[in-house]
Design goal:
Radius of gyration: 23 Å
Distance between the termini: 62 Å
Structural class: mainly beta
Number of domains: 1
Strand content: over 45%
Largest sheet: 5 strands, mixed
CATH topology: Immunoglobulin-like
CATH class: Mainly Beta
C-alpha cells in the first residue's frame, strides 16, 4: 500500500516538473464579448456560391481558378452597416495597398445577414503563394483569412 502511494506521488511530482518546463510553455485568455456585439458565426473561402451558401469550401486555390469567394454569416447586425473586404496577394503586405478592395452597405431588419465577396482571376492568372483577405465591419477589423494559390 505504501509502495503504491510512493509511486503515485512520484508520478504526480514528475508530471508537475515536466509540465512546468519551458518546452511546454504557452497560455490562453478568455474574453466575454458584449451580448449585442456583431459576430461572424460562420465563414468560408470557396470556389463558388450556390443558393447563398459556399460551394467547394477550401483554402487552397489554383492560379487558373476563375473566382475566389469569402462567405460570411453575421449575427447581431440589426440595422445599417458598412462592410469592407481587402484582398492581399503575396506581393502586398498588410501595410501596402490591397490587390483589391470592396465596400458595401447592408440593412438587416432581423439582425442576421449573409454577405459574400469575390475576386476574379487576372488575365495572367492569380499569383502563386500565400494570400489573405481582411474583413472590416463599420470600420473595425473583424477577421482575416489566409489561403494558398498553387
Amino acid at each position: 500500500m505504501i509502495q503504491k502511494l510512493y509511486q503515485m506521488l512520484i508520478l504526480l511530482l514528475a508530471g508537475y516538473i515536466l509540465g512546468c518546463s519551458e518546452q511546454n510553455s504557452g497560455g490562453g485568455i478568455m474574453v466575454n464579448p458584449a451580448s449585442e456585439e456583431p459576430t461572424v458565426v460562420d465563414a468560408a473561402l470557396a470556389i463558388a456560391i450556390n443558393e447563398d451558401r459556399p460551394d467547394g469550401i477550401t483554402n487552397i486555390f489554383y492560379d487558373s481558378s476563375e473566382q475566389i469567394y469569402v462567405w460570411l454569416y453575421w449575427t447581431n447586425v440589426k440595422g445599417r452597416h458598412k462592410i469592407e473586404v481587402r484582398w492581399f496577394s503575396p506581393d502586398e503586405g498588410s501595410d501596402d495597398a490591397p490587390h483589391r478592395e470592396e465596400k458595401r452597405e447592408f440593412n438587416s431588419p432581423n439582425g442576421n445577414q449573409i454577405t459574400w465577396f469575390y475576386i476574379n482571376r487576372p488575365l495572367s492568372g492569380f499569383t502563386e503563394g500565400e494570400w489573405f483577405v481582411e474583413v472590416f465591419l463599420d470600420g473595425l477589423f473583424e477577421r482575416s483569412y489566409v489561403f494558398d494559390i498553387r
